[in-house]
Amino acid sequence: MMLSLLLLAATAQERFEAGDAAAAQNLLEKSPRLSDPVWRYNRAVSAHAAGRLGRAMADYEWLTLRDPEDDAVRINRLLARLDRGAGDDAEPPLGQLARLPLRTIFVFGLLAALVGLLRLRQRDALFRLARLISSLSIFLLVMHHLLLALDSRTVTVQERALLERPEVKARSLLEIPEGNLLDAVETQDEWVKVRTGSGVMGWMKSGDLIELSGEEQ
Amino acid sequence: MRLLWLGILIAAPAQALQVVAEIEPAPARAGERVQLTLRVSSDSRAAVKVQDLGLGSFSLISKGGSSSSTQMTFSGGRRNVVHSSVHRFVLRAPQSPGEYPLGPVKVSAGAQVGQSAQVPVRVVSAGDVVRGAKNTSEELFVDFTVDPPEPFVGQQFTVTAHVYSRVRLEGVADLDFPEAKGVWWEQLENPSRAGSEVVVYSGRRYRRHMVGRIAGFAEREGELVLTGGEAAVQVMQGDLFFGGLKEKTLYANPVTLNVQALPSDARATQVGRYSVRHGYIANRLNLGDVIELKVTVKGDGNIKAFPLPEVRLAPGLRGFTPKRDVVMNEGSTLIGGTLTWVLPIQATVPGKHRLQAMDVRWFDPDKQSIRTARVGPFEFDVVGTLAVPKGDPAAQADSGSAHPLRGPIGSFRSERMTASWLAHPGAILILALLVLLLWLPRKVRSAAGPEEIRRGELELALEAALGVPVRGLGRDELLDQAAQALGVERAAELDEQLSALDAAAYGPSEQTAEAIKARLVAWLGTSS
Questions:
Q1: pLDDT tens digits, one per residue of B209-238
Q2: Tally of helices (H runs) and strands (E runs) in chain A
Q3: Number of domains in chain B
Q4: Going by fewer Cβ within 10 Å, which terminus of chain A is more open, N or C?
Q5: Does B435 touch chain A (CB under 8 A)?
C-alpha cells in the first residue's frame, strides 16, 4: 500500500516536472491524505501551476496555519495571491493567534520541559520558570489547534458574484475573485452565506466554494 | 484740529510750583480716549509727584510717561534756574454728553506743592460732528472716507485715510481707523510710500496724502457711525536748525454709512462678486474608489466665510470630511481670493449612483440680486470590483486575465519538513505529557526511619509467607494464619522470634532488634 502511494507520488512529481501540473494534481487526488502536509503542499503547487488558484489558496492557507514559518509556503501563497489579483480575504478567528510562530514556540516549550524535568528533584526557581514557559507553550499550541478546528473559512474556486439573497437572480453585491477566502456563516440548502474580510455579507452557491479543511462543499 | 482747551493757573506768589493742565481733544466724544498733559515748572530740583489728578467723571486708562528739562538764565548778575517737567495721562471721557470739570490737579516737588486750575471739558455724543474739526487747523487735518457709502450687509466697504497738509508732512507715526460695533475688519495692504496729490479744499490748496486703508464688512443693516479715527503725524516746523520735527495728533469726524439690507434669503457671508466652477466625476468607478467632488469659488468678497451647501449623499455613498482651502488675493483693494472645497466620496455598494445637484448661491451687490450656480447632478456606475490599494503588489495583478500566471516556486516535497513534525498533534501530545509531569505533585517520600522501613520489609515478608495481608491483624490472628500456612511448629517458631523481637525492641536484649528482624525476614523467605 505504502509502496503504491510512493509510486503514485513519484509519478505525480514526474508529471509536474514534465509540465503537466493538472495531471499531477489529479494523480495526487486519487490517494487523498488531507492531514499530510507533504501531500497538501504537493497538491497546492500542482494546483497553483495548473491555474486552479482556489484549490491552491486553500491548501496554502491550510499549510500556513500549521506552520507560519514555512518560507516556501509563504512565498508560494503570496505568488498565488498575485496570480489571483486583489481580494478581500477573511482572516482566521483570532487571526494573530492563528499565525503564531509555532515552530519556535514548540522548541522553546520542549527545551523548557526538559530543563524542568532535570530540576524535578530540586523544584527550585529554575524549575518553576521552566514549568511556566513549557505550560505557556503548550497552552498556545493547544489554543492554536482549537482555533484551527473553529476555522470555518471557505475559498472560492472561481470568480463568482456575491449575491444579496440565496437566489440565482438576486442582486450582485460584489464580484469575488477565485481563491478569495471567505467566512462561512450559514448554510441553506445549496447556498452558503459568507462574509468577506471587510465584512460584506452575501450568498454563494456551495459548489463554488471549497472548505479549507478539505473538499468542495 | 479741534479746539484745545487750556487751563492755566499761575501759582500764588507763595507757591513756587506752576502747574498747567491741558486736555486734548476738546470737546471730547463720549467714551473717547483723551490725553491729559501736565506741565510743571519749579525752582526745586526735587522730583515732581502728582498727588491728585482730580479725575471726577473721567477715568484713568494709563500713564503716558514724563520728561523733564532745566533752564538756566542770567539776569542782572543773578542766576535763575527753572526745572520743567511734562507728564502725560490717558483718560477715558464720560459715557454721556455734558460739561465735566477736570482737576484741579495737585502736584508736589519736595516741600513745594501746587495745583492747576480746574479744566472744564465739554463731552459730546459719539456720533456728533464736531464743527470745524476737519478744517479748523488750516495747515493740517485727517479725513477718513468710505467707499461705497451705502454698502449691503456683508459687502466690503473700504475706509481710506487721507492727511491734508499745507506744511511738510514727514510721516505718520500712528493711525487709528474709526470703528463701530457690528463690523468685521480685514486688513488691506497699505502703500509703502504714501502718494500725494494737490487738491483744493474749501478754496485752499492742500497736498493730500493717502496714509492707509482698511476693509470692513457690516453685519447688520441701518445707519452705522464709525468714530475714533485719528492719526499721529510728524511735520516739519521751521527748519532743521531752528525748528525740527513735531508730532501732532489729528482727530477726525465720525463717518456715517447707510448699510442696506440683504434679501431675506441671503446671508451676510454670501455677498460678493463670485464665479463658481466645479470638477467632474468619471461615469464609471471601481467599488471602493474614492472620488473627489471639487467646487471652486473665486472672486471678491468675504470669501473666508463663504458657506457651501451640505451635500446629501444617497445610500451606498460615503462622504469624508471635506477639505476647504482659501487663497487670498494679495495687493488688491478688494478682499477676495479663491476658495477650493473638496468632498471625498466613496461608493460602498456597486451599481448606479446619483449625486444630487446642489446650488451654490450668493448675493451680487453690483446686480443687487441673488445668483446661483448649480453643481451636478452626477451619475456614475460603480462596478463590483474590489478597491485596489495603491502600492499593493497584489493590486497590480488585478488587471484581469491579461497577465500571465506566475505559478509556484519550487517543486514537490518528498518528505515531511521537520517543522511540520513539530507542529504535529503527536509532538504536541508528547510535550503536553512532559509538562504534565512537571505539574504532578512530588512523590511522597516516607519520612520514616530505618526501623520502620525494616518493619515494612518484615510486613512484606510475612505477607509473602502467609499469603494474606497482615496489617491490622492481632498477634493471635497472625499466629493462626501462620499455623494454617506454615504449620503449627513453624507458627510456634514464628511466635518465639516475634517475642524475641519485642524483647529487643522494648526491653533488654543481647541481640539488637535489627538483627532479629533481619533474621526473621530471612527465615520467612525460606519458609515461603
A1: 888 888 899 888 888 888 888 888 888 776
A2: 8, 7
A3: 4
A4: N
A5: yes
Distances (CA, A) of A58 to A212, B240, B361: 5, 98, 57
Q: Report the CATH number of the A151-217 domain.
A: 2.30.30.40
- pLDDT tens track for B437-460: 888 776 545 445 554 555 578 888
Final residue belonging to a domain, choices B124, B157, B173: B124
Distances from the Cα of A66 to the Cα of A73, A82, A145, A180, B205, angstroms: 11, 22, 9, 19, 100
**% residues pLDDT > 70 (chain B):** 81
A135 with B438: Cβ contact below 8 A: yes
List CB contacts (< 8 A) between A46 and chain B.
412
Identify which of A13, A83, A174 has the shortest CB distance to residue B397.
A83
Class of the CATH-defined domain A1-85: mainly alpha
* B395: chain A residues, CB-CB within 8 Å: 86
Are B457 and B520 in a shared domain? Answer: yes
Task: Over range B468-492, report the average pLDDT.
Answer: 85
From its phi and psi, is residue B64 left (phi > 0), alpha (psi between -120 and 50) or beta?
Answer: alpha
User: Which one of B389, B423, B438 has the shortest CB-CB distance to A106?
Assistant: B423
Q: Quick one: average pLDDT of B504-522?
A: 78
Residue window 342-401, chain B: list those with CB within 8 Å of chain A: 349-351, 383-389, 392-400
Going from the C-alpha of B409 to that of each of A63, A78, A95, B406, the distances in angstroms are: 16, 11, 26, 9
| Amino acid occupying residue A62 | W
pLDDT confidence of B11, banded at 50, 70, 90? Answer: very low
Closest CA in chain B for residue A164:
B349
pLDDT tens-digit profile of B17-61? 888 888 877 777 788 778 888 888 888 778 888 888 888 888 888
| Residue A7 DSSP SS3 | helix
Cβ atoms of B262 and B173 within 8 Å: the answer is no
d(CA A138, nearest CA chain B) in Å: 6
Beta bridge partners of B234: B171, B247
- Pick the closest to residue B275 from B321, B312, B309, B306 (CA basis): B306
The answer to whether the CB of A64 falls within 8 A of the CB of A99 is yes
What is the Cα–Cα distance from A39 to B455, expressed in whole angstroms?
A: 63
Q: What residues 178-217 of chain A have any CB closer than 8 A to a CB of chain B?
A: none
Our CA-based measurement puts residue B457 at a distance from the nearest CA of chain A, in whole angstroms, of 26
> Are residues A142 and B416, on separate chains, in Cβ contact within 8 Å?
no
With CA atoms as reference, the chain B residue closest to A8 would be: B414
Q: Which three cell numbers stand for residue B138?
A: 488750516
Question: pTM for this one?
Answer: 0.40
A119-132 confidence digits (pLDDT tens):
888 778 888 899 99
ipTM of the complex in this document = 0.75
Residue B393 lies in a domain: no
Structural domain range at position B60: 5-124
Domain chopping of chain A, boundaries: 1-85, 95-150, 151-217
Cα dihedral B259, B263, B269, B272 sign: negative
- For residue B151, is it within any domain? yes
